[in-house]
Amino acid sequence: MKNKNIVFNIITLIVSVSLALIVCEVTLVAINWTPQRSTSDYLQFGYSTGVPIWDEDGVLDEAQPVKVKLFQQDEELFWETIPGTEFTNSQGFRGDQDVEVENRHDAIRILVLGDSCSFLGRKLYVDFLHDQLSKDYPELSFEVINASVPGYTSFQGEKVLASLMQYKPHYACIYFGWNDHWILPSGYSDQFHFDLIHSFKVVQLAQIMWARIIDMRDYRVPLDDYQANLTAMVKELKANNVVPVLIAAPAGYDEKGMPSWALPFYQEYYRMTVAEIKNIPATHKAYADVVARVSQESNAVFVDAQKKFESISPSMRPFFRNDLIHLTTKGHEAVADEISIQLKAYNSSNKLTRGALVPTNKDE
Known about the structure:
With 364 residues, the protein is α/β, with parallel strands linked by helices. It has two domains: 1-32; 94-357, SGNH hydrolase (Rossmann fold, 3-Layer(aba) Sandwich), CATH 3.40.50. The chain is built from twelve helices and seven strands. It has helices at residues 2-30, 125-136, 154-164, 190-197, 201-213, 223-239, 262-269, 274-278, 280-298, 305-312, 329-349, 354-357, and strands spanning 71-74, 78-81, 108-114, 142-146, 171-175, 243-248, 301-304. The strands form two sheets. Strands 4-3-5-6-7 form a five-stranded parallel β-sheet, with helices on both faces. Strands 1-2 form a two-stranded antiparallel ribbon.
């Protein structure tokens, strides 16, 4: 009898809690509650609009944003580029040349997946790379697929990569890092944001309340997750017979650390503390070191852009815009040159065929 009472009480408790949760969910739906009503930091990614909508960085020239709507919200990726704008083709890729899914011209395809560092500029490193390879291998045709999106992290890159495999690229340049180690105004990671969006409303409310209680302060993509994302992308690429090219994002900071403008900027737009801001150079180096480690462990092409810049000039100023993050034309050109050098070395050491450029198809 006692056991029956215990079972009955447990069942009653489960039913009561379930009913309470259902009532809460129905109520939240009825009043049209959204996370935005509980926190102004919901989906705030350092842009004035939360997720990027307009060009706020200066797509072509530094500090000269264009009044063109470039981005739209997306449930899986938070946002994505709008196809057919002044700066994107009909597929939403950076540039004005469309790329057919079918490779009719038997071209060597180079996929680029990254953030604004691969999106901003009049001539990008991938454009310089295209020109250099076309010059070195005039008998071959090349196509560039620049799927980079400003504000993206490796979290978003890993999610979108599989859909890009339909283009059957031969090489894929992966360039993430800066956005991964930003701390958002909310303190939420990208994974937390994603889970929040895809949860029941009652769960969303509980998650937000818990985040406030523990005063959540996390990187958009914590270091271990960054490594896991890069490793997953390399695995996806190799499974599709694509050569991974991992680029460690360079930085323009010198031994003096962060410039004077950085403190008020990151405090205003990211609500970062002084200590967090001063630690950015060290944090960034830790993320760059992960790129080197994943490259070595997975036998991917590694592009050390920082080392390349230092071999050209003792000053980093010529390679960076004033934010010391995004590249100038000279920076893009230097990155392209290093990619070309590393590709040739990789292809030679791995005995790749067709002009020492294209990997042998595993199915042949």
